[in-house]
Amino acid sequence: MIGQHGLGENVLNEIDIALDAHELIKVKIAAERDERARLAAEICDQTTATLIHSIGQMVVLFRRNTKNPR
After folding, report:
1. Selection from 61, 13, 54 nearest residue 34 by Cα
2. Each residue of 8-48: pLDDT tens digit?
3. Which end of the chain is more exposed for a tag (fewer CB within 10 A), N or C?
4. Model confidence at 70: pLDDT above 80
5. How far apart are the first and last CA of the chain?
6. Is the pTM of this model over 0.85?
7. Strands (E), the chain
8. CA 46/CA 13 separation, integer angstroms
């Protein structure tokens, strides 16, 4: 969940770890619509993930794990 403290380096690291482990994750972004879109795009840029779906405050991200695909 990304809350009032925004998207920090620690949050990006945790998202990166979760993508390696699960390939498909949901992230809740507690912000206004424009800010959510900006944060989702920034997450995708920083983690090389693909935005699969966005509804409300939830975004679904996917990144293939090349070392251990599921």
Report:
1. 54
2. 999 999 999 999 999 999 999 999 999 999 999 999 999 99
3. C
4. no
5. 24
6. yes
7. 24-28, 50-55, 58-62
8. 10
